[in-house]
Amino acid sequence: MSGVKALDPQQQLLMDRAVNHLVTHHSPSGQRVGWLMIASILVEAWDLYSIAFILIFLREQFHPSPALLGLAGAGTQGGAIVGALLGGWLSDRIGRRAIFLTTMVMFVVFALAQAFVPNMVWLVVIRLILGIPLGSDISNGYTYIMEFLPRGEREVMGNRWQFMFAVGEVFALAVIALLLWMALPHWLVWRLTLGFGAVPAAIIFALRYNLPETAIWLIRRGRFREAKQVSASMYHDPLDFLPDHDVAIPQPRARDFLVHIRRDPIRWRATLFGWIACFAQGSEFSTFAFYIPVLFVLVGVSGVLGTDLVTLLLYVIAAISGWIGPLITPRIGQRGLSIAGFAIVLVSLLVAGYAIKTGHTTILPFAAAAMLWGHYWDAENVVTIPSMVARPEYRGIASGFAYIFVKLPSFLAIFLFPVLFNAIGQGNATLFTALFPLIGLLAAIFILPEVYGYQDD
Q: Average pLDDT in the 245-251 region?
């Protein structure tokens, strides 16, 4: 690189000053960027919940084994485990922008491909591949949010991912209800449902295309000239105190990430809570909530179309919860939000298990609504917190590593929960699921420090 000079302590101080300046003062364009990054959750929600509803149609057409059916449902979750870590690492090394453009292109291609599969084996393979860009985009998106918005606003925007998740689920259920109302054959319903996921992905790609690299990443990579240009364009702040030449910066090493977070007790406790809470909320959703449509049919709540409409209403309620949670975060803090959310889910699952075991199925929709309300609070900050407390040079891998703890239990639960259903019954399986919010609640009470407004960039 021409014009590159060696880094000295004074330049290191300037880098720290520039990063702190950006995260403290600027966000006029950051809000738009934040929404564009959070919007990718809609794509994941569409995929996750549409497959949950059309598993019945896949079983009807292909007659797969329970294991193969479960693997089809869990495929993107398995691929996302790889994508989250790979995408986060690459985001730190080669930049945020290259990753978010690549992931959306991949999703458009493979979302369309799954609509044309000839059998279940091909569907499983494509869904495993499809999960890679999903996991990569989430881990990368959080780096944009944390680096384009100032403290106080970045954690609120990060917490909005559950609102967008609910919007995606409502959108998916509404489209499925329309297709069923049109009396289309079931084989066409599931193919259209899966293929339609490419539409929002293509729209998001078009809206994101002109977004620049984050100024904070450019600063941490020593690319001061580009950073000044981005800051001037986005915030009308040219960062005049930075030099006009680039400096050589060593590439961050992924293996140093764990050493980095252990050095600070608050960062370590917050990150540890994030991992535990990711696991807990991912498990509670991917067992009970993911299988709500199947569960309603099995216990006789309603038929297929009726189940879709009831579930649609539940996710409208969930969307309201997802919108309220970030708004109250500045008042009750991240810790208060987690405690309230996990507590609500714990009580709701105990009530739901009782309702199933005793045959009081009329209670089940109300328990499910309360469970989703609490879940959309306890899940909102589980990736936000580890991403926020990480330093910029490790932020991509911090986000990706946390998201692994969402996707690993999601993959295992979606894949194995039908087996648990059959082994111990729907009621006992629901009561077993209550262990997960209990774990999350204890972690929020005893491990999580209050980190709202945290800054150590």
A: 78
